[in-house]
Amino acid sequence: MTEKTNKKNNPCGAPPLATAFLAGSYCPACAGLDEGRLLENWHPAYFLIYSFIRRCMGRDYAAFGGDCLLAMVVGEIWLYNMGRYLRRNGADGISRKLADPDTRLSDLPACNAYSISESLGIPRETVRRKVKKLIDMGWVERRESGDLTVTAVCEQEFQANFVAETVRDFVSTARHALDLVERQFGISG
After folding, report:
1. Of 12, 126, 172, 186, whose Cβ has the fewest other Cβ atoms within 10 Å?
2. How many structural domains comprise the chain?
């Protein structure tokens, strides 16, 4: 990947889409803090972070008519598809490449319902029902092999209604949380 790193905000120096994120985790090198000091006064930092999470959950609840499991299933399929795509191809021009239906179909790695069930800890039968509903909505497609990908229709819906707001919300929350942590614990990049 060719993304430049910002040493102040990314002390480990790994690309912004580091392997840990592509594998569904976080960067341990950038997560270091004195947990003892955090737990002495954890409420302010956790309030900021959890308020962001709760707002995201509220957006999902509204978008999926109260079916949070449906949101989790489509989100996990999308994360699988995009994570593997990014690992193989990098991030440069991904939005343009995936807008082309032929490129999307040939390049976007698919997943199966079993891996979604395992990843989320949701019974396979529940995932199967949610996938059927997502296919009926036109948000997920099942390939001949049975594997699943999120459709461009789904992405266009989220781009139009959620992407900019979620990123703005995250940036605001992250900046305030980092400022709080830096002041409380003396941690800075």
Report:
1. 186
2. 1
